[in-house]
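Quick illustration, no need to memorize.
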Amino acid sequence: MNILYKISGWIAGNLTLIIVAVTALALWQPASFTWISIAAITPLLAIVMFGMGLTMKPADFGPIFTRPKEIIIGELAQFIIMPMLAWLLCYLLKLPTELALGMILVGCCPGGTASNVMCYLAKGDVPLSIAMTTVSTLLAPIVTPALVLLLTGKEIHVDVFGMFISIVQVVILPVSIGFIINHFFGKYTRRIVPLMPMISALAVMAIIGVVVSCNQVKILQCSLIVAVAVILHNTLGLVLGYLLGKCARLSKPKSAAISIEVGMQNAGLATSLATIHFAMYPMAAVPGALFSIWHNLSGSIAASIFRKGNKS
């Protein structure tokens, strides 16, 4: 078991490099992942969200009630800055419909679980980060479909109720089950939790691999514009999230938490929603896959910068 713990820790510590390697393999040897069905993306994401639930405790909900101002600021930033940035970048870069849809899906999703790890590395306010992730995840079944409809509804048919059900099934239910199991069977789950970074990383790698391999030709044709859009979206989210925290006169650790939470999206959910509800636009899943790669790298860089700033 100790060997598995060490492997899990190594994978978590080198996740960015591993994901980059997986992406390169999927681009140049797509057969390495085409044996995985696109339909597998949804259960794979559910495994990641179940792992998130296993790490949650009742105490994680404390800041939601004791620090409402910070939570409200963070959630408004999450669901205003990122969707509007996505829409603006699509307009300015004149992205094709499929890629624009994918960008907007990423922008409208809740914060990603990796943000909590990056916040810890940044010496940010980890309880605030966890609380923000929890709240944005709980709000996602209603807010994400509504925002997607608002930003794309005139050009693309959006099944709001279908997206609501999908987010409940792939996010809320796995997280809830994981939370309940951890609450009542904590002495058993303590042995499993250290392995979840490895299991979640394998699931994320499979999601990215299958999306990239299935869209290899189109990605190579438009890789530059997608990369520019994803990098700008994530970077501006990190910067604006931090500036908002400082404008609200929050401390550096709290501002760092908001920055990382806003900039790091649950891109896996965006990819899943694209494959389930917008199968006629296969490239819509690509921005989410590429965002998953980039935000791990940018999150690590941001954490290093914030860590130095929070020491001063």
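The chain has a mean pLDDT of 86.
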